[in-house]
C-alpha cells in the first residue's frame, strides 16, 4: 500500500525574508526610546531647516501637511536586531523640503522635540531616500512611534529615523548626535552591521 500519492512533492518551504545580517523578523512594532514620550500638539508643532549660515525655513503643521506627500512601503531595521518588512508610511520627501533651501552643507543634524539628535550625510536624505513621515499604516503616527512626525531613513538603522522630529540643521562638517556620541556608528548601514564605532 502506498502512502504517497502520485505527484506529491512534500510541503513547500517558505521563502526566508531577505534580512540584514544579525537581524530577526518582527511581526509587531517594538517601541524603543531614549527617554519619555513627548506629547506634541500639532497646533504648536513646526518643522525647521536651518542652513550653515543660520537661515531658516519653517513650516507649521497646516503648511507641512499641505505639501505634496508620498506613500511609501519600506523595510525598517533596528540596531537592537529586529526588522519589520513592508511598512507603509505617508510623508513629505526631504527633497521637497529642500527645494528652496540653498546650502553648501554635506551633513545634517536631525533635532527632535525631546532634545534627541542624530547625524547623517545630506546625500542620504535626498534622491527619494528619506521623508518626514506623519502617517503609518493609514493612521496618524502615534506619539509612541514618533508622532506627530518623525524622520524616516529606511536604508539606515532606525535610530537615524529620529522620532518627534523638529528640524534639520545643515552642517559643513560632521559631528556626532546623541547615540553616536555614546559609541554608536556614525553612519549605521544595517547591511554592513555598522552598529558601533569600529564596525
TrEMBL record:
Domain of life according to the entry: Bacteria
Region Disordered: start-end pairs: 1-22
SUPFAM superfamilies hit by this protein: Oxidoreductase molybdopterin-binding domain
InterPro entries referenced in this protein's UniProt entry, alphabetically: OxRdtase_Mopterin-bd_dom (IPR000572), OxRdtase_Mopterin-bd_sf (IPR036374)
Oxidoreductase molybdopterin-binding domain span: 35-179
PANTHER family reported for this sequence: OXIDOREDUCTASE MOLYBDOPTERIN-BINDING DOMAIN-CONTAINING PROTEIN, PROTEIN-METHIONINE-SULFOXIDE REDUCTASE
Name of the protein in question: Sulfite oxidase-like oxidoreductase
Organism per entry: Dactylosporangium aurantiacum
Amino acid at each position: 500500500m502506498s502512502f504517497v500519492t502520485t505527484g506529491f512533492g512534500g510541503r513547500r518551504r517558505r521563502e526566508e525574508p531577505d534580512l540584514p545580517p544579525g537581524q530577526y523578523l518582527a511581526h509587531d512594532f517594538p517601541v524603543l526610546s531614549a527617554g519619555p514620550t513627548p506629547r506634541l500638539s500639532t497646533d504648536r508643532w513646526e518643522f525647521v531647516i536651518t542652513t550653515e549660515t543660520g537661515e531658516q525655513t519653517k513650516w507649521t503643521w497646516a503648511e507641512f501637511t499641505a505639501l505634496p506627500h508620498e506613500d511609501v512601503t519600506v523595510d525598517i531595521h533596528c540596531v537592537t536586531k529586529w526588522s519589520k518588512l513592508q511598512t507603509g508610511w505617508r510623508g513629505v520627501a526631504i527633497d521637497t523640503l529642500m527645494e528652496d533651501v540653498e546650502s553648501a552643507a554635506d551633513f545634517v543634524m536631525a533635532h527632535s522635540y525631546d532634545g534627541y539628535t542624530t547625524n547623517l550625510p545630506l546625500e542620504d536624505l535626498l534622491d527619494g531616500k528619506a521623508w518626514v513621515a506623519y502617517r503609518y499604516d493609514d493612521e496618524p503616527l502615534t506619539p509612541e512611534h514618533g508622532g506627530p512626525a518623525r524622520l524616516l531613513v529606511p536604508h539606515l538603522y532606525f535610530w537615524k529615523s529620529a522620532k518627534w522630529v523638529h528640524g534639520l540643521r545643515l552642517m559643513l562638517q560632521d559631528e556626532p548626535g546623541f547615540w553616536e556620541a555614546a559609541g554608536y556608528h556614525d553612519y549605521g548601514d544595517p547591511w554592513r552591521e555598522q552598529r558601533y564605532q569600529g564596525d
